[in-house]
């Protein structure tokens, strides 16, 4: 049947005139078909962002904007290399981290800018030509400085309770001294205001401030006692037995102690718990210092070895053979860069304690040094017999002459630089003296960290804050930044475990179907059943392998102590 | 039972054997369950054969009715040749519609289209969504109008500023113009009491009159007398006719409009189902028509009515119109025979009206016989052209615009005084010089005026002279139309040519985005394939992990003992010699001795320590030989060397230690175990490498380490809400607003 033209199918007959090339009457529209973005991904590609930077003219030409920060200073506060954008998975996260990077950069800039506020500079003694600073006596210095500074140089004659030890608080405001024969006193050494003075009636081997000036510990004949600043006994810690030296780790709230018997112990004073106590098996321990950078204890030994300890392992983290003679003294500088050791063979060595390398400097003394102490500006004070010598720049360069020298009438018990002051406190057998050492202390203090002019309320606030920011003792390691790293060995193990599991093939299952009566089965059905059975087996296998990985981790969870009411908890499904 | 019924049927219809037979066959067929598709049969005896009712018989080409065959019925008429030619042409050009797609496929297409549409709609939001997701701080409500506040604050600041003298001077010269917007209604005075009362009265009067009219209409409607209604309608029509005639004389434009209205009513009739014999009543009549003469008549009447109402008042050239003419003639015959027709209800008045108006035209034409034959011929040609064009265009009718009407008026008024010749010449000129500027306007006009042209043309076709005035207007319109049609065509053709190019371009875009071919697998294998996929995935993960490992940050620099290369010579310090030596080291002699043997003692001991330590960590070979297995056992029997070698598990090579090259140092590598619990042992989500993760954690957040400003930025909460405000979901306005 022929096709019938329907009215809606009718096409217009194109007249011959229109078929020819467009005449003058017609308008030719040139249409450029704009390629529309198609699909999400494509659309993202199509949009080309061209950032146009329009610099507005400076409205006030007198003010040229922010002062540029010198690169060196920026580098000082920089937080290191940022994130590589390609290392982050989604674009949204990339942008988020970009923003965060910007904030970090901004923080570094802010910090660098804020350095303008650190206006104080440390001073130093300048000798004229033909003179040396060594020849300046304390008397001369005292005469030439202002009254307040001169008042910081004093001498306490304590005849009876002989050889003394002394320590400053972290803000350098308070002094604690303990005589071997039982005299313990705490006072504000700037105002000379006495907090307390006690006669312990037994030998006092060491004294140590705790986190605040309101509490201190004294290692007495048998045990360690704690007192408040009024001299009231707070605790007697019998676990700390026959302690020779004590150190307080301020960020961990740990009182570390080494004993006559070779025991090392860490006591958490915030919760009153012994974190760790064990025998170092290295004999009597008499020299103890802390590395402020990583809170590791450094102990000097008779065999010329410095051992480093954390409460987390019963073996030393590291052992350094520093001298070929018994050590007499050691100290780590407040930044945790250098370790100074002195031995009985009249040697003095400076080590790089971060890399555990060295010696950076090696000195030969005329007599062996019994005491060592670094100041905040890396001056090193040596105590030899009754002589105290202070050296400047002895770590980076080999100095030849002492910066200052002072002689006492009696032998030196210990010496400490006072933080944030140009003062060296020396405890001798019959006196406690504070000497002026210009340029030894940090001139700019961070009031939120350690404030020498702290009020009571500030102190309370600081206590709470520091308690909130307390670091757990588990984090005491040689490298304190390890917490911000990925545990690569375990990561490797995990990957290996995964790999191993995946290489196991699911077992093949031979399935022989049962012979069924005619009409019930059929070859198709049998084949189907076979497939089903095989798949089931495979699935089960995969399931079992999947459960394998978590099991490795779960084992520790199961060791948890079971409470009485645990029996009512829903039982775990056995898989 | 069935046999009984069949007998009954036989009783009823004994005369018609064929029918009986058919019934029987039907019955037999109905025994079978399967449905048989029956040939549709024509039930209604109609004179007009519609193409829609044509039946394609099952017998193939022989049985079917071809349209070409239908033309044979014309026999020796003049128009036969033309019609048959038309039919043939139509055959060639027409195409059958493609078969509709199967349902699932159609659904699929619908779904894909719907998906695309919604996706594009959602894509619009992408930018805002990502911006919100990325932003470090969102404060709700989001679209807070900030500009307002800014303006207020600007004013606020200027309030306190003391103006300088110069500024005051300037202000005097150029006072800031404040815009006051006062609505005009408020300016009107309120009505007085009297006015209000008057207005009320008027309104009441109006309402009363309305009510009275309504009541009257209701009353009249209730009158059931047909005669009364008939008379009334006739009166109405007469009235209308009179009015129309008057209008012709006084206001020809209005008359034109009236005519248009008539045309409109025809159109409405055409597309409505009235008088189409499709209603329930008509169907009943159809059933009865076989046996009842009256019903047959009724039906015929009805059909004629519809034809009357829908007939075009002219035919011109084209085949369809001829057919119309043919159709027209048939009902005329019925009309004559059937007196009943005249009384038929609603169409009648219209028909009367139309006939009246025809009469009028005839009269008018007679009077206009004076006009030249040439002109009429010209006009005829034009009209023909136009008509053909119009048919080709086949565009839907549209109401006239006000604009068009105005134009017409202008044309009419201006042309009234001109001679016909002049106008024709003018028009020709116009034809030659196309006015490019007004193309679009004209286009619109053309579209609008199309419907009017049809009836105008018909008048010309009748071959009678037309009133000059009308002619002129018609001519003008037609010419314009002609031109417009041509232009339109020209425009249309390039468009249609350009279209496929565009489509191709689109296709190109689409081609790139075709989805990757996915594996098609039977369902039985599904689980198995999943397994493989999982394996592949896990393998990928593994490889990822490997990359993570390989891109470790810390590659330990090879440890070299600096002591060997950098030997620092001890510098002698001129320290002060103490007068008093501490009690602990009194023995000078002892010191001297220790100094003498220092190397032997201390260093050796330390080295021993170190070797012990390193041995502890070293993995050792495991000997798995069992004496007595495969050989004689007992005392004093040596194990075979070969066996020993075979059964020892060899330990892996020594792992390098941190302190390997440092002779003076022992580092305990197992001491870190406690920290490991706190360390991250997996690279968390957004990071790909260990290095980047570590870099992300490198900077602290707390204000003890960060400057306060940076700290505030770092701890800014991700979401803040404004108190006491309603937080509404985002609206589409957000997409329009560029600033937000």
UniProtKB/TrEMBL annotation, chain B:
The keyword Nucleus applies. Pfam families: Utp14 (PF04615). Residues 297-317, 445-455 have a biased composition (Polar residues). It is found in: Nucleus, Nucleolus. Residues 292-339, 432-456 are annotated as: Disordered. Residues 432-441 have a biased composition (Basic residues). Keywords: Nucleus, Phosphoprotein. GO terms for biological process: rRNA processing. InterPro entries: SSU_processome_Utp14. One of its GO terms (cellular component) is small-subunit processome. Belongs to the UTP14 family. This is U3 small nucleolar RNA-associated protein 14-like protein A. It comes from Zophobas morio. The lineage of its organism: Eukaryota, Metazoa, Ecdysozoa, Arthropoda, Hexapoda.
């Amino acid at each position: 049947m022929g096709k019938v033209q329907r009215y809606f199918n009718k096409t217009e007959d194109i007249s011959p005139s229109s078929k020819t090339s467009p005449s003058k009457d017609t308008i030719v529209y040139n249409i450029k078909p704009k390629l529309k973005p198609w699909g999400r991904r494509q659309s993202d590609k199509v949009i080309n962002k061209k950032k146009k930077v329009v610099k507005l003219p400076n409205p006030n030409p007198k003010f040229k904007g922010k002062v540029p920060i010198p690169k060196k200073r920026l580098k000082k506060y920089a937080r290191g290399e940022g994130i590589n954008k390609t290392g982050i998975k989604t674009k949204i996260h990339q942008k988020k981290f970009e923003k965060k990077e910007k904030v970090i950069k901004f923080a570094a800039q802010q910090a660098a800018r804020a350095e303008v506020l650190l206006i104080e500079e440390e001073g130093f003694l300048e000798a004229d030509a033909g003179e040396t600073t060594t020849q300046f006596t304390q008397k001369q210095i005292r005469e030439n400085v202002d009254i307040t500074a001169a008042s910081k140089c004093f001498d306490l004659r304590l005849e009876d309770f002989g050889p003394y030890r002394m320590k400053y608080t972290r803000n350098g405001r308070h002094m604690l001294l303990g005589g071997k024969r039982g005299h313990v006193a705490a006072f504000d050494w700037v105002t000379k205001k006495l907090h307390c003075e006690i006669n312990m009636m037994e030998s006092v081997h060491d004294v140590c401030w705790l986190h605040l000036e309101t509490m201190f510990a004294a290692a007495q004949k048998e045990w360690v006692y704690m007192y408040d600043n009024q001299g009231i006994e707070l605790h007697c810690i019998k676990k700390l037995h026959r302690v020779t030296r004590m150190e307080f780790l301020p960020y961990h709230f740990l009182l570390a102690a080494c004993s006559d018997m070779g025991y090392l112990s860490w006591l958490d004073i915030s919760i009153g718990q012994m974190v760790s106590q064990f025998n170092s098996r290295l004999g009597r321990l008499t020299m103890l210092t802390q590395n402020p950078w990583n809170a590791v204890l450094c102990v000097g030994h008779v065999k010329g070895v410095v051992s480093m300890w954390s409460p987390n392992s019963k073996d030393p983290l590291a052992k350094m053979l520093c001298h070929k003679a018994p050590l007499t003294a050691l100290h780590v500088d407040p930044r945790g860069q250098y370790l100074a050791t002195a031995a009985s063979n009249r040697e003095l060595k400076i080590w790089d304690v971060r890399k555990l390398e060295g010696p950076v400097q090696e000195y030969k003394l005329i007599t062996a040094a019994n005491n060592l102490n670094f100041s905040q500006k890396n001056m090193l004070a040596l105590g030899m017999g009754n002589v105290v010598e202070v050296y400047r720049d002895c770590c980076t360069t080999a100095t030849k002459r002492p910066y200052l020298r002072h002689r006492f009438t009696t032998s030196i018990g210990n010496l400490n630089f006072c933080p944030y002051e140009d003062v060296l406190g020396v405890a001798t057998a019959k006196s406690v003296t504070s000497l002026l050492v210009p340029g030894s202390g940090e001139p700019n203090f961070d009031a939120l960290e350690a404030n020498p002019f702290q009020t009571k309320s500030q102190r309370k606030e600081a206590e709470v804050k520091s308690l909130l920011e307390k670091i757990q003792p588990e984090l005491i390691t040689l490298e304190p930044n390890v917490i911000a790293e990925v545990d690569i060995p375990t990561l490797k193990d995990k990957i290996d475990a995964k790999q191993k599991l995946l290489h196991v093939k699911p077992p093949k299952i031979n399935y022989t179907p049962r012979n069924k009566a005619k009409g019930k089965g059929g070859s198709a059905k049998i084949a189907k059943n076979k497939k089903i059975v095989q798949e089931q087996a495979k699935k089960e296998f995969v399931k079992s392998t999947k459960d394998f990985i978590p099991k490795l981790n779960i084992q520790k969870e199961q060791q948890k102590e079971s409470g009485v009411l645990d029996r009512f908890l829903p039982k775990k499904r056995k898989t | 039972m069935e046999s009984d019924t069949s007998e009954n049927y036989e009783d009823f219809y004994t005369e018609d054997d064929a029918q009986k037979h058919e019934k029987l066959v039907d019955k037999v067929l109905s025994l079978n369950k399967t449905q048989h598709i029956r040939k549709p049969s024509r039930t209604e005896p109609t004179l007009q054969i519609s193409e829609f009712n044509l039946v394609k018989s099952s017998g193939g080409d022989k049985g079917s009715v071809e349209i070409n065959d239908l033309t044979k019925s014309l026999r020796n008429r003049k128009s036969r040749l033309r019609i048959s030619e038309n039919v043939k042409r139509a055959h060639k050009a027409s195409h059958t519609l493609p078969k509709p797609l199967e349902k699932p496929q159609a659904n699929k297409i619908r779904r894909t289209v719907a998906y695309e549409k919604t996706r594009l709609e959602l894509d619009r939001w992408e930018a805002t969504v990502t911006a919100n997701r990325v932003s470090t701080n969102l404060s709700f409500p989001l679209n807070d109008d900030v500009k307002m506040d800014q303006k207020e604050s600007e004013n606020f600041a200027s309030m306190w500023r003391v103006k300088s003298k110069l500024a005051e001077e300037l202000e005097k010269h150029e006072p800031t113009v404040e815009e006051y917007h006062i609505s005009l209604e408020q300016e009107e005075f309120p009505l007085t009491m009297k006015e209000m009362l008057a207005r009320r009265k008027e309104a009441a009067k109006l309402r009363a009159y309305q009510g009275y009219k309504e009541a009257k209409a209701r009353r009249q409607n209730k009158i059931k007398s047909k005669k009364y209604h008939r008379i009334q309608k006739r009166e109405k029509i007469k009235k209308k006719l009179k009015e129309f005639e008057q209008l012709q004389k006084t206001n020809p434009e209005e008359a034109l409009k009236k005519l248009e209205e008539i045309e409109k009513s025809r159109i409405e009739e055409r597309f409505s189902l009235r008088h189409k014999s499709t209603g329930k009543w008509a169907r009943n009549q159809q059933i009865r028509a076989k046996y009842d003469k009256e019903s047959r008549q009724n039906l015929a009447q009805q059909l004629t009515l519809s034809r009357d109402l829908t007939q075009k008042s002219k035919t011109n050239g084209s085949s369809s119109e001829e057919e119309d003419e043919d159709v027209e003639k048939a009902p005329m015959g019925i009309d004559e025979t059937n007196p009943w027709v005249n009384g038929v209800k609603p169409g009648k008045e219209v028909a009367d009206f139309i006939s009246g108006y025809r009469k009028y035209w005839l009269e008018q034409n007679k009077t206009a016989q004076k006009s030249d034959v040439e002109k009429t011929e010209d006009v005829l040609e034009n009209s023909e052209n136009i008509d053909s064009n119009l048919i080709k265009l086949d565009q839907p009718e549209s109401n006239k615009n006000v604009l068009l009407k105005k134009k017409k008026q202008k044309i009419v008024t201006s042309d009234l005084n001109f001679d016909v010749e002049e106008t024709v010449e003018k028009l020709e000129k116009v034809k030659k010089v196309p006015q490019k500027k007004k193309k679009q306007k004209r286009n619109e006009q053309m579209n609008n005026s199309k419907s009017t042209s049809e009836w105008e043309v018909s008048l010309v076709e009748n071959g009678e002279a037309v009133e000059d005035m009308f002619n002129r207007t018609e001519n003008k319109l037609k010419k314009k139309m002609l031109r417009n049609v041509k232009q339109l065509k020209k425009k249309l053709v390039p468009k249609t040519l350009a279209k496929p190019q565009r489509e191709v371009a689109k296709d190109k875009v689409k081609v790139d985005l075709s989805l990757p071919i996915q594996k098609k697998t039977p369902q039985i294998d599904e689980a198995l394939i999943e397994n493989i996929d999982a394996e592949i995935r896990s393998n990928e993960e593994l490889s990822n992990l490997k990359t993570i490992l390989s891109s470790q940050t810390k590659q330990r620099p090879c440890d070299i003992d600096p002591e060997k290369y950098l030997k620092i010579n001890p510098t002698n310090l001129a320290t002060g010699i103490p007068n008093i030596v501490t009690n602990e080291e009194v023995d000078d002699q002892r010191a001297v001795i220790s100094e003498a043997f220092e190397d032997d003692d201390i260093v050796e001991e330390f080295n021993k320590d170190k070797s012990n330590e390193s041995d502890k960590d070293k993995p050792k070979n495991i000997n798995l030989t069992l004496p007595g297995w495969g050989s004689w056992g007992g005392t004093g029997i040596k194990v075979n060397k070969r066996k020993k070698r075979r059964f020892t598990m060899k330990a892996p090579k020594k792992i390098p230690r941190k302190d390997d090259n440092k002779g003076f140092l022992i580092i305990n590598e197992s001491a870190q175990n406690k920290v490991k619990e706190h360390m991250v042992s997996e690279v968390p989500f957004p990071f790909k490498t260990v290095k980047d993760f570590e870099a992300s954690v490198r900077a602290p957040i707390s204000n003890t380490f960060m400057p306060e400003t940076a700290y505030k930025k770092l701890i800014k909460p991700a979401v803040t809400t404004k108190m006491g405000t309603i937080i509404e979901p985002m609206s589409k306005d957000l997409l329009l607003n560029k600033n937000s």
